């Protein structure tokens, strides 16, 4: 067998250009050096792990209250969404409306009255609109009295009309009285609870049409006219009262929820279109509102059969107080917030779920409004639903 040819390896040239000579340092032999070094390094890293474990445990102990305390605050001390809660303490107050011309449509309701009274305390010039003249005249006297001399008879205009008529002349009258409108508050609309509470497929179509006329078409028509005026005067503010039912729905409230959703969508588009004209649009979605009378527009759970006045009041008394709700609505408008939610629990929590986790919201609502409970509600029996007010909130 022939042998392979010998190939000499190339010689490595001597590196002569290095500036220094690296000396050879002999390493003394230490018995068990690697073992000792391993033990020391292992102990050091073990100590570091223990320190971080202790720090982590302390962090967990600190983090738990930091999670629990906000949860407790949210469930038992809160009646509005976070952005509105912050603005209530460090934002602009109602005094911003002092001397402004504010047109409130829908002051015959308890909520509308409270907004008018609070604006009167800061000296805002008011245009009060509703269908009943006697209610408007009485409210005008109350506003003058509560203003402590800030308002006189000439500072408040009583403008009765039915918003569903959609007549432009009422807008012209409101503008002509003071020469301008600075703030327009739309508090109109009605609820299916006053007519009939039933499944969507069983509700008469005339009720659906009536609901859209009152909750969407009429407010949209009036808002169009006011926006045109704002464009001429260099801007203004629109505060629209919607409902949290528009966020997640409620059994038996299909027409009401749909009409309010339509209003919210309309205002969302209007907000984007009008911002360049310095027109600011605020949508406030209240929940169940406390009522002292049986004719409240906020009565939600009324079935097809008669429900007693006492049972009806037991439900609405668990709602948010109108004075508190009116204050939060005006704070939202004063700070030009986009959309706000105002409600007692569990409605506020359910609204958050509907906004940020619809899947969970659907199952929670299915649990709350079970088949048996819905049947009782449709029959006019008071629902056994746990509703609570925030603590230490007036």
From TrEMBL:
Keywords, ordered alphabetically: Membrane, Transmembrane, Transmembrane helix
One Pfam family this sequence matches: adh_short
SUPFAM superfamilies from the UniProt entry: NAD(P)-binding Rossmann-fold domains (SSF51735)
Superkingdom: Eukaryota
Gene3D superfamilies in alphabetical order: NAD(P)-binding Rossmann-like Domain (3.40.50.720)
Family membership noted in the UniProt record: Belongs to the short-chain dehydrogenases/reductases (SDR) family.
Name used for this protein in its record: Dehydrogenase/reductase SDR family member 7
Transmembrane portions of the chain: 44-77
């Amino acid at each position: 067998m022939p042998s392979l040819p010998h190939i000499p390896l190339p010689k490595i040239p001597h590196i002569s250009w290095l500036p220094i000579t690296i000396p050879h340092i002999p390493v003394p032999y230490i018995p068990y050096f690697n073992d000792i070094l391993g033990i020391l390094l292992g102990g050091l890293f073990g100590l570091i792990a223990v320190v971080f474990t202790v720090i982590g445990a302390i962090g967990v102990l600190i983090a738990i209250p930091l999670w629990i305390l906000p949860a407790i605050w949210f469930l038992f001390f809160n009646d509005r969404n976070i952005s509105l809660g912050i603005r209530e303490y460090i934002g602009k107050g109602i005094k911003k409306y002092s001397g402004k011309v504010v047109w409130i449509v829908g002051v015959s309701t308890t909520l509308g009255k409270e907004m008018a009274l609070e604006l009167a305390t800061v000296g805002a010039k008011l245009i009060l609109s509703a269908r009943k003249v006697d209610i408007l005249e009485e409210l005008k006297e109350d506003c003058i009295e509560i203003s402590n001399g800030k308002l006189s008879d000439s500072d408040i205009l009583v403008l009765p009309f039915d918003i569903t008529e959609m007549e432009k002349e009422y807008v012209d009258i409101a503008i002509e009285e003071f020469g301008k409108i600075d703030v327009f508050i739309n508090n109109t609309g009605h609820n299916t609870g006053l007519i009939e509470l039933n499944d969507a497929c069983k509700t008469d179509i005339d009720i659906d049409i009536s609901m859209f006329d009152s909750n969407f078409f009429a407010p949209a028509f009036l808002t169009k006219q006011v926006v045109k005026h704002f464009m001429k005067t260099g801007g203004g503010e629109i505060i629209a009262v919607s409902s949290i039912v528009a966020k997640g729905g409620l059994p038996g409230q299909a027409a009401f929820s749909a009409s309010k959703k339509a209003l919210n969508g309309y205002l969302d588009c209007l907000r984007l279109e009008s911002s360049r004209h310095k027109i600011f649009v605020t949508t406030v979605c209240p929940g169940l509102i406390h009522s002292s009378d049986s004719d409240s527009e906020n009565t939600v759970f009324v079935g097809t059969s008669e429900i007693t006045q006492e049972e009806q009041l037991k439900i609405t008394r668990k709602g948010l107080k109108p004075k508190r709700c009116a204050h939060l609505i005006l704070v939202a408008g004063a700070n030009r917030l986009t959309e706000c939610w105002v409600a007692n629990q569990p409605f506020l929590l359910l609204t958050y779920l509907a906004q940020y986790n619809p899947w969970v919201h659907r199952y929670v609502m299915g649990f709350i409004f079970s088949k048996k409970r819905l049947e009782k509600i449709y029959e006019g029996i008071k629902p056994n639903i746990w509703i609570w007010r925030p603590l230490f909130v007036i």
